[in-house]
From TrEMBL:
PANTHER family: OLIGORIBONUCLEASE, MITOCHONDRIAL, PTHR11046:SF29. It comes from the Eukaryota. InterPro entries: Oligoribonuclease. This is Uncharacterized protein.
Length: 242
């Protein structure tokens, strides 16, 4: 079952980007709306992007929440897709959810991906994976450090842009702040479960944590990420939906 935050992120990209829904999308109108108001549009389409599009797009949608509301209210007779978005953007639980996903993009997923891209060997990631595991264990209990903008990976580039500023700006609404922290803790717990399942052999006490030179040489050419495969499937997705 899709969460409300995920649905809002998906439908916003579907309706408000140029390569979204051909039937109900209004991407060109949305683009014109922003251009007339000199607003930098941060939304991106789902097509051709990697799995972590959800995190970035959620943050961008949160950044544009008021702009989206203003745009939809300017329509005399919005279609059902726009009505769905109009309903979701006004829900505190949904807006807090996409804010949480956006914060994870800025402070966890984005920096972690940059570490992966600069690592030469998948086993070189072991210290990073242990560090991430420890932080996720703590954040799943108390995610207030994320709301405060504390870095998870010291020394790794964090994209501090207008989206970052919107995500970390206090809403002055205790309920929204509480919902966002709860969503962050739930997400941290979910990511932790996935991490411990996927790379369990690279944690302390297991066979690949302190690999021998022989094992390192065996995996020397093993890529640290599946970027090539993701690009292939993204291209296939574009061809299927073209």
């Amino acid at each position: 079952m899709e969460s409300g935050a995920s649905r809002l992120t998906r439908t916003a990209s579907k309706a408000l980007t140029l390569h979204g829904c051909e039937k109900s999308g209004v991407g060109q109108h949305f683009r014109t709306h922003f251009k007339e108001r000199d607003i930098d549009n941060k939304l991106i389409t789902f097509r051709g992007h990697r799995f972590n599009h959800l995190f970035y797009a959620a943050g961008a949608t949160y950044h544009h929440l008021n702009d989206v509301i203003d745009f939809i209210e300017s329509w005399a007779d919005p279609n059902n897709l726009l009505k769905s978005i109009s309903f979701d953007v006004r829900g505190k639980a949904f807006s807090s959810g996409i804010r949480a996903l956006g914060i994870i993009d800025k402070l966890i997923a984005g920096p972690f991906w940059r570490i992966i891209e600069t690592s030469k060997n998948i086993l070189d990631l072991n210290p990073t994976l242990c560090h991430l595991q420890k932080n996720l264990q703590e954040l799943s209990v108390d995610a207030s450090p994320l709301l405060a903008g504390e870095l998870v990976f010291e020394g790794v580039e964090v994209h501090r842009d207008s989206i970052f500023d919107s995500l970390l700006k206090d809403t002055d609404d205790p309920v929204s702040e509480m919902y966002t922290q709860m969503a962050l803790e739930l997400c941290a717990g979910g990511i932790l479960l996935t991490l411990e399942r996927q790379v369990k052999d690279q944690f302390p006490g297991v066979k690949f944590y302190e690999p021998s030179l022989g094992i390192k040489s065996m995996v020397f050419l093993l890529p640290t990420a599946n970027t090539c495969s993701e690009r292939d499937f993204a291209q296939l997705d574009m061809l299927v939906k073209a």
